[in-house]
Amino acid sequence: MTEPAISFQGVTRRYPQKGAAGDVMALQDIWLDVPQGAVTGIIGRSGAGKSTLLRMVNGLERPSSGKLIVNGRDVGGASDGGLRAIRREVGMIFQHFNLLASRTVAGNIALPLEIAGEDRAKIAPRTAELIERVGLTAQANRYPAELSGGQKQRVGIARALASGPRVLLSDEATSALDPDTTRQVLDLLQGINRELGLTILLITHEMAVVRDICSHVAVIEAGRIVEAGETYSVFSRPRHPTTRSFLQGVTGVTMPQFIAGQLRPAAGDAGAQAVLQVTFTGRHATDPMLARLTAERGVSVNILAGAIEEIGARPFGSLIVGLPADRLAESQGFLEQHGLMTEVLGYVG
Ligand SMILES: Nc1ncnc2c1ncn2[C@@H]1O[C@H](COP(=O)(O)OP(=O)(O)OP(=O)(O)O)[C@@H](O)[C@H]1O
């Protein structure tokens, strides 16, 4: 096993508060390994602790306790020189781009190289290469005010790559962009991850971003990681209610209103219908299991809602079905035996 690019080992971050309110625990006992060369997403609501977590990775904050290793270096124990070394290997892009208005595209991208005291003769070709990498050759001499949001973020990405980092951090980089531009920027990040082998750690409050480019995900709430793993596994078997609520509307299906309004927690009457969510993953996504349930067991199944999509290039489907409550246990057994996942959502009728 290769070492993780970033390893949080029981990290806590406390902000002392004046007065009686007690300290703010921004992060509590975080254990997380960010694999090298992967795209990992941290998702959480406002105030969950995402920015604090990211700021630690580039050495802007230190853990109050626990240990944080970035590219083999201990952030907590680093000297000022050590922190500078950590920052050199970590690039960062921002929601609001943070470009200098008085500098052109080329000037913004060259800035980190100038600050690092790079040889003048090397700066121009390196800058041109980065500009080409992000597809802005025609805009090289424009100023930020003359660029679209997507173009500004491309400048941000090129600037973050200028010093050849091993890790790229993204702080809500697509939150200010429209869906089409978001897609293009995510494609660019994915290309950079694949072609340069760069580790990407991004924070977001949008599960669609995680679905589209993250191979790994951690869900954070009130300073704690409540669920983490490979995106595919977390999406197919979300365990925590927060994860489930982030997933609503992003994968699979939403419950049709006419059913949601009638749903009861218990079967009640004879003749009631059980409402079951059936999740298909991997090769089972295309297997006609529901048809087989009807053909082989004589259980009639009503499909109420459904969606099939791709996550991490693997098929992922989710259906909401109704079937006779008195055949529920048998049907669940049949479907699970054939590799599908089921969850009872309630009863109607
Ligand atoms: N410098 C600070 N001093 C005191 N409290 C802080 C400080 N920075 C963050 N916090 C608190 O720590 C908690 C986590 O904040 P953080 O900014 O990391 O959350 P977030 O998930 O990034 O939220 P958002 O998406 O709104 O940026 C919040 O309760 C916040 O008020």
TrEMBL record:
Q: Which keywords has UniProt assigned to this entry?
A: Amino-acid transport, ATP-binding, Cell membrane, Membrane, Nucleotide-binding, Translocase, Transport
Q: Which organism is it from?
A: Paracoccus halophilus
Residue ranges annotated as coiled coil are none
User: InterPro entries of this UniProt entry?
Assistant: AAA+_ATPase, ABC_transporter-like_ATP-bd, ABC_transporter-like_CS, ACT-like_dom_sf, MetN_ABC, MetN_ABC_transporter-like, NIL_domain, P-loop_NTPase
Q: Which Gene3D superfamilies match?
A: 3.30.70.260, P-loop containing nucleotide triphosphate hydrolases (3.40.50.300)
One GO BP on record is: amino acid transport
Q: Which domain of life is it from?
A: Bacteria
Can you say what this protein is called? D-methionine transport system ATP-binding protein
The ABC transporter domain, residue ranges: 6-247
Q: Which PROSITE patterns match?
A: ABC_TRANSPORTER_1, ABC_TRANSPORTER_2
- What PANTHER family does this protein map onto? AMINO ACID IMPORT ATP-BINDING PROTEIN (PTHR43166), METHIONINE IMPORT ATP-BINDING PROTEIN METN (PTHR43166:SF30)
SUPFAM superfamilies, alphabetized: ACT-like, P-loop containing nucleoside triphosphate hydrolases
What molecular function terms (GO) are annotated for this protein? ATP binding; ATP hydrolysis activity
